[in-house]
Specification:
The chain has 200 residues and is α+β, with helices and mostly antiparallel strands. The protein has 2 domains: 2-89, no CATH class; 121-198, no CATH class. Helix content is 24%, strand content 37%. The chain contains 4 helices and 13 strands. Strands 2-1-7-4-3 form a 5-stranded antiparallel sheet, sandwiched between helices. A 4-stranded antiparallel sheet has the order 10-11-12-13, covered by helices on one side. Strands 5-6 form a two-stranded antiparallel ribbon. Helix 2 packs across helix 3 (176-184).
């Protein structure tokens, strides 16, 4: 079974349980004001589903299989995006006829600002830490101090470059896109030079 929820910051609204992801996507398709964003991690494509407060009506009925789920902008605050999130629910007390042991539970794990499939979490964290070290080396080569900041923020953790006056002048996020870029570029100095943002 899969649990579908609406998440905004620390607040959650439970939509319900579904048999599979296909059913969940059919439910989401009933909501015309959902914003979809696709990204790639290790050659696997994923889609993020978001509700923007400004686009949610005062009252809207999501009609799915003859049941109605109510959506209203008054369920949420104005300040943050609302994420449509689902997770596989493992039924621990079910009797499994399995020959293997130590089987990984299905679903995703939230790593900083991103949901990562459980089967990829260990490698993702290792790649993320490698990226952080490479960024720090890059900043050091420029004569900058480095610091990890913004863990848990909407855009996720970043490594910032600090000049001699203590000003933050460079920033690179530890996100799936940057990790993939690191893996696909042999010359990381050139990659980081193109990718980083200047903080004004």
């Amino acid at each position: 079974m899969i649990l579908l929820e609406l998440i905004q910051g620390k607040e959650k609204h439970t939509i319900g349980l579904f048999n599979n992801e296909e059913c969940i996507k059919k439910f989401i398709d009933k909501i015309p004001f959902v914003t979809k964003t696709s990204y790639t991690i290790d050659n696997h494509n994923y889609t993020e589903y978001v509700l923007l407060y400004s686009q949610i009506p005062e009252y809207y009925e999501v009609n799915y299989k003859e049941f109605i789920f109510i959506l209203s902008k008054y369920m949420f605050s104005r300040n943050e995006k609302i994420y449509i999130s689902w997770n596989f629910i493992h039924y621990w007390d079910e009797k499994w006829n399995l020959n293997k042991k130590n089987i990984l539970v299905e679903g995703d794990t939230k790593i900083d600002a991103y949901l990562i499939p459980n089967k990829m979490v260990k490698q993702y964290i290792e790649d993320r830490e490698k990226l952080a070290l490479e960024i720090q080396k890059y900043y050091n080569s420029l004569g900058l101090k480095s610091k990890r900041c913004f863990l848990g923020s909407e855009d996720g953790e970043a490594v910032v470059g600090i000049d001699k006056e203590g000003e933050l002048i460079k920033l690179i996020h530890l996100d799936p896109e940057t990790i993939e870029g690191m893996q696909n570029n042999k010359n990381l100095t050139t990659f980081f030079r193109k990718f980083h943002e200047i903080i004004v």
